[in-house]
Amino acid sequence: MKIHTLLSTIILLALVLTVGITKAQTAPAAGPSDATSAPPATAASVGKVLCYGQNISITGPTETPTTDYAVYHWYKIDANGNKQLTNVTTKTYTETTTTAGYYNYQVVTENANGCSSPISDVFKIYVLPELSVSVTTPTSSLCAGAGTTTVLTANVTPTNVSPSTTSPVYGVKYVWTRDGQPITGANSNTYTVSGETTVATVRFAVTVSYDLNTSCTATGYKDVVITPLPTKPVISAN
């Protein structure tokens, strides 16, 4: 009977240890903590704004200017608002982003004596949606000379960008170029091509960037063919 009880105790302890180890090694759920809330009003209102596809890298405090804490307990907040203990125990936490939204974290530090700090405030990182742009025009061929025009339009994804009223709205900037050179004053979602007098194929491009992080850009282009005018006709008699 005593041997049976001892064996039961050992098995129970093994199960407890296994559960504890599994919990300590649990990876947080992939993806954002909050994928539905509107983007931050300004970049300064969150810890960091990243471009789509960038990876997260955040760092905890040090115990002294030259010494790290013995252990860092990193938590990621899941989509239900629950804190998930990650398997990262070093000063730096990294994660590969998937979709756009808020990625929210907290950390607890532990010194060499096993004393733990209070949990930190929530650190929020916002990942912007993937940005892309295409350029459309009613015609991509113009006659050389004054009086012939066409309008180029930048079509941006996501579609809910300024001045759209769809929520959430992402502010963007436009910069148009002609054969690689910036066009003065061409900073809206459309550009009117006019006054092309030289026969050539001209490449007009637009670069779009987010207001929240101007390093997040996308570029689209359209080639416009400037064709020669017919020569002045001469009438002859039969």
Short description:
The protein has 238 residues and is mainly beta. The protein is 10% helix and 37% strand. The strands form 4 sheets. The protein has a 5-stranded mixed beta sheet, with no helix packed on it. Strands 9-15-14-11-12 form a 5-stranded mixed beta sheet, with no helix packed on it.
Helical amount among residues, as a percent range? Answer: under 10%
Domain unit count: 2
Between the first and last Cα atoms, what is the distance in angstroms? 129 Å
Strand content: 35-45%
As residue ranges, the low-confidence spans are 6-25
Describe the structure.
The chain has 238 residues and is mainly β. The protein folds into 2 domains: 30-127, Immunoglobulin-like, CATH 2.60.40.10; 132-227, Immunoglobulin-like (Sandwich). Helix content is 10%, strand content 37%. The protein contains 1 helix and 15 strands. The protein has one helix spanning 2-24; strands spanning 48-50, 56-59, 71-77, 83-85, 92-95, 101-110, 123-127, 132-136, 141-143, 150-157, 172-178, 181-182, 190-193, 200-210, 217-227. The protein has a 5-stranded mixed beta sheet, with no helix packed on it. Strand 11 and strand 12 form a beta hairpin. The longest helix has 23 residues, at 2-24.
